[in-house]
Design brief:
Elements (H helix, E strand, L loop, with lengths): L2 H9 L8 E3 L5 E3 L5 H12 L21 E8 L10 H10 L2 E8 L3 H11 L5 E8 H10 L7 H7 L1 H9 L1 H7 L26 E4 H6 L8 H13 L11 E4 L11 H4 L10 E4 L2 E4 L4 H15 L12 H8 L7 E5 L12 H4 L2 E3 L22 E6 L6 H10 L3 H8 L7 E3 L15 E3 L39 H12 L17 H26 L4 H14 L2 H16 L2
Parallel strand pairs: 3-4, 3-5, 7-10
Antiparallel strand pairs: 1-2, 5-12, 6-10, 6-11, 8-9, 13-14
Length: about 575
């Protein structure tokens, strides 16, 4: 059935699949409509038998009898080996028999490079693994018609994606542009549940706390005292002042060192706005941001924040966590602890604990926590330059199967993962397990997997990963992250979910201009305030004037107008 028809039927009251429920806040939460045994059977059906793993389920044509050439633009992650040497890429070539003309660009440069290609007219056939916002889809799809509609292609060639959309009909609305077409396939991490629900985390060296007879900090003042002790009191015991109290990295997943800390003063996210009680609220111009920057500038002036945290990439952060002779890392921001160090170095891995949100000087204690499953951007699109769109779309469907999801995110069967032991259960303790980790390779140049390079609309595979024995066993890594994230749920910030908003015509261009300018400016200004290149006492008014000049308030007003129109207000 055409996905647009599915959504239309749902709107008219015909419920095809009952898997979503709305809470009082209007946020959508998932409930599974499969029994544990059905989930296991579904997994085995997609993965194939233990003797032979199938590549694809459904109406697909891979491998091609005759190869075709497709140009694909992809980002190169710093923690993944060169894509042409990566196992998943090599397996993709063999599984599809596509002659891929691969264009790779470092992750931090990918968006800018792609925009230049799109403007030049010399753009690729497929854009894969590079996030395009709903406004990008409006621009390149609805307006310029560089991106082609995917609706019919999904219906005809994507049984796995179609199954997911039928199970999550709200995603169809999220994916649909203003002209009723779908121009991009989003990424969904394991069905949208798990540790991704609250990624602004801090990881602290618990052994150092114990060595110095310190308690886990619970307030911003206690945290400063802990960092001072980490800097001055030789917690690693080597008699050398080599400790790095607090660090992080840029252009990675929630590893910027300020994300967690600002949320001790008030709500903060990288959109720089939030919804509460049908009102869009600004963030960057609030007094609590000013207070947070004063606090972090004080930490920086005391040598507690690593200056490299604002310029290094994830591989450099991992090198700090994996320092060979002795631990030198005290605290770091990161979406998960595997971004800091080799979790298979069990002794060191066990030393790092997740911190709970800190209470700020005004008593605020919360963290962004997603309680809904929604999709708001795309990372797979096809341009009008593609001669074989019916083949290209099947790549996205391939990475929406169990097998390719597990391979891409974990690695090679028999080396990195295998089928679960009989009678074992997944991370929820109820669902029969389908897979188990042999080794979970998180740091450095990953060869057997490609992690966040590209993710499709994944099935809920993480709940099927065997959890057996000590949760701190690296084989139970995903289960640990899930359990840690559940600890954050009581601290979920009191905000409402913003539905997908579409800006059409001049509003689309205006919003994009405002958002791009504000995003670029805010990232620079926040770091400069922390590092003392700007002074909060003398430069705050100029900062607010800059936000006004760049259209920050007008952007908030435009979002409010668009939200009101969507909600019929």
């Amino acid at each position: 059935m055409n996905v647009r028809k599915v959504f239309a039927l749902l709107l008219s009251g015909i419920m095809m699949v009952s898997v979503c429920a709305c809470g009082d806040s209007g946020q959508t939460t998932d409930s599974r409509d499969q029994t544990s045994s059905e989930v296991q059977q579904s997994s085995e059906g997609n993965m194939g038998s233990k003797e032979e793993t199938k590549g694809l389920a459904g109406n697909t044509s891979f491998p091609l009898e005759e190869p075709v050439t497709i140009t694909i633009f992809m980002k190169q992650q710093s923690d993944v080996v060169d894509l042409k040497d990566n196992l998943i890429y090599q397996e993709l070539l063999k599984a599809t028999n596509i002659d891929i003309n691969l264009i790779t660009v470092p992750g931090e440069e990918a968006t800018e490079k792609l925009n230049l290609l799109m403007a030049s007219g010399e753009y690729p056939d497929v854009i894969m693994g590079v996030e395009l916002t709903s406004q990008d889809l409006e621009k390149y799809g609805v307006e310029e018609q560089i991106l082609i509609p995917l609706n019919d292609l999904i219906d005809q060639y994507c049984p796995n994606i179609t199954e997911q959309l039928q199970a999550h009909p709200n995603w169809i609305e999220d994916m649909t542009s203003s002209d009723g077409n779908i121009y991009g396939i989003p990424t969904v991490d394991s069905g949208g549940v798990g540790h991704v629900n609250s990624p602004m985390k801090y990881w602290i060296n618990q052994e150092w706390l114990d060595n110095l007879d310190l308690e886990m900090p619970s307030t911003t003042e206690e945290f400063k005292n802990v960092l001072m002790a980490f800097k001055n009191d030789d917690p690693n015991g080597n008699g050398i002042a080599d400790e790095i109290p607090l660090t992080g990295c840029i252009n990675s997943w929630n590893a910027d060192p300020y994300l967690f800390l600002i949320n001790a003063f008030g709500y903060f996210n990288m959109d720089y706005y939030y919804l509460k009680d049908d009102t869009i609220h600004s963030i960057l111009d609030q007094d609590y941001i000013k207070d947070a920057l004063i606090y972090m500038n004080d930490l920086y002036n005391n040598g507690l924040i690593d200056p490299a945290a604002f310029s290094q990439d994830n591989s450099q952060l991992t090198a700090i966590g994996n320092n060979e002779s002795v631990e030198i890392l005290g605290v770091s921001g990161a979406g998960h602890v595997g971004m800091l160090l080799d979790i298979n170095n069990v002794e060191r891995y066990h030393k790092y604990a997740m911190m709970l949100p800190l209470k700020g000087p005004d008593g605020y204690q919360a963290i962004p926590y997603t309680t809904s499953v929604s999709v708001k951007s795309s990372n797979f699109t096809i341009t009008d330059a593609c001669e074989y769109p019916e083949i290209a779309i099947q790549i996205a469907d391939l990475f929406s199967t169990y097998e390719w999801t597990v391979n891409a995110q974990v690695g090679k069967q028999g080396v990195d993962w295998d089928y679960a032991d009989e009678g074992t259960f997944g991370m929820d303790g109820v669902t029969p397990a389908a897979y188990k980790f042999i080794i979970y390779d998180t740091p450095g140049q990953v060869v057997n997997a490609w992690w966040g390079t590209y993710r499709g609309i994944e099935p809920d595979w993480k709940v099927l990963v065997q959890t057996d024995g000590d949760i701190m066993d690296p084989a139970n890594f995903e289960s640990r992250l899930y359990a840690e994230t559940m600890k954050l749920k009581p601290y979920a910030a009191d905000v409402d979910m913003i539905p997908t908003l579409l800006y059409s015509g001049d509003d689309s261009t205006t919003f994009t201009q405002y958002k791009t300018a504000v995003d670029d400016y805010a990232k620079i200004a926040i770091v400069e305030f922390i590092m003392g290149k700007r002074n909060v006492d003398t430069d705050w008014d100029a900062y607010l004037s800059d936000l006004e000049r760049l259209g920050y308030k007008k952007m908030i007003e435009l979002i409010q107008k668009t939200y009101d129109a969507k909600m019929g207000q």
